[in-house]
Amino acid sequence: MSLSAARLSIKSIMIWLVIVVSGSAMLLSTLVTNYLQHAEVKEQLLQNVRSLADMVASNVRPIMAVTPTDLDEEMNRSDQLANMLQGLDSFPDVLNAHIYSALINGQTPQMLALYTKSTSTAAKSKINDMARYFTARLDEDNQVIEIIRPINIEEQTLGYVYVRMSSESFFSYVSGTRMVQVATIVLIIIAAFLVALKYGQMLANPIQDTNLMLQKVARSRDYSLRFSASNVREYDHMLDSINILLSRVEEYISKQQQAERELQTLNSRLEEEVNQRTIALKSANNELIQTLEKLHQFQRQIVENEKMASLGDMVAGVAHEVNTPIGLGITASTMMLDRLAVIDQQFKDKTLKASAMERFINESRENLNIIYRNLDRAAQLISSFKQVAVDQTSEEAREVNVKQLIEETLMSMRPRLKKVTHTINIDCSETLNVMCKAGPLNQILINLIMNSLIHAFETVENGKIDVIARLTDDQKLKIIYKDNGSGIPTSIKKRIFDPFVTTKRGQGGSGLGMHLVFNLVTQALNGNIKLESEEGNGVEFTLTFPVTVKKP
Description:
Elements: H1 10-65, H2 71-86, E1 94-101, E2 111-116, E3 137-139, E4 144-153, E5 156-166, H3 168-220, H4 233-348, H5 354-392, E6 397-401, H6 402-412, H7 414-417, E7 423-427, E8 433-437, H8 438-456, E9 464-471, E10 476-483, H9 490-493, H10 513-524, E11 528-533, E12 539-546, E13 548-550
Parallel strand pairs: 7-9
Antiparallel strand pairs: 1-2, 1-5, 3-4, 4-5, 6-8, 8-13, 9-10, 10-12, 11-12
Helix pairs in contact: 1-2, 1-3, 4-5, 5-6, 5-8, 6-8, 8-10
């Protein structure tokens, strides 16, 4: 698999590295040197202006020290000052010079004399802006330097000298310096480029040779080729490692070819054995498929037998339960027949008394009440049993009241439940009506209750069972069944819904009760069941399956 083409080569990396490093170093050095040199030249230029202004102030100090008494003396002083300033012609950089009087008693200074170079223009008066020029100012736009210095005698200011000089020499120096520095940088970069080009080629050539050699090895698959030494020590180490790798690859390929030859010989032997064992395996598979089909048939038959056994137990219990109220009804009716015969004989003999008749009427009323209650009780038992039996043998959905369905299930289990002291609580709305398959739900509740009675409450005297029914937001019926029994052992908790899993092996337990519950929930009701249990802390089964809601 080839890699994507790289954008840079060793030669280009070397060239750019040398150019960038040398160029950056030279540029930084040039900037620092240029800044320091220019600062020094600028300071020297400013110092020259200050010295020249101080010299002019010193020269005119004797003239300024004499205060004129009349107009002629004042005109004479102005001529002397003007002549003094004309001496600035010997300084080629001086453009203008002014002499101002001092600020006396708040009076505005006056210009006493001025000088303007013949090749320059006159400078404006600085009387209103003198304080700005007490420090030398470099005007880069006009390329001039301006300064005002005081004329002092014994700490008394007699006036001020303004000097304006050209700074073209400074800017010419700066421009020339920059040209020289730029040319130097360009020459250094060119030299660095040539050096980097030469040494980059020296570094790249061995790698190119190595690459060509490796391509040749890859095309020809001749791993006996070896690399020769180079002029660079690091490349020699790399080439030695590649030579070692090639020798090991050559050795590995030789061993692989030998192994392939042995494998071909072994494969030819194995093909015959595989053909023989394939025939035997097909025969065994056919027998296994037949055995599995028989096993599934037996399993379905066992499940059906389990359901019928449960129904048979319920039939026997209900029959026994129905006999009690019928027996009481027969006893009460027999007593009434005996008392009726006595009353009839007394009536015929005309010995019937009112008290006897009243007693007979009271006894008859009590016996008829007894007969009615017991016959009604028997009718309820038979009706509940009939509905449960129909539900268990029918897979059709019908409209049911969930609480009534649970109570009918408990009624059908009354012969078994009245023998124990456990309590069963139902938490369900009396108006919860749904369309669902009542038979599977009835069978699920019976199996869960029987599982609690047989296993969970084996060592519990007063157990408690809670059956909670709710309608979820997504129109599904959620039934929570929980007890406070012994819980499910950890060893079988993950396998509780598998067939033939029981803790009563050899004691009459088939291990199909919870398997039947799982199949009824997931297949008959198209729902799911979840188990939560800790050994010693009871169990909680959560059943959720879709229903059609019927509003009350």
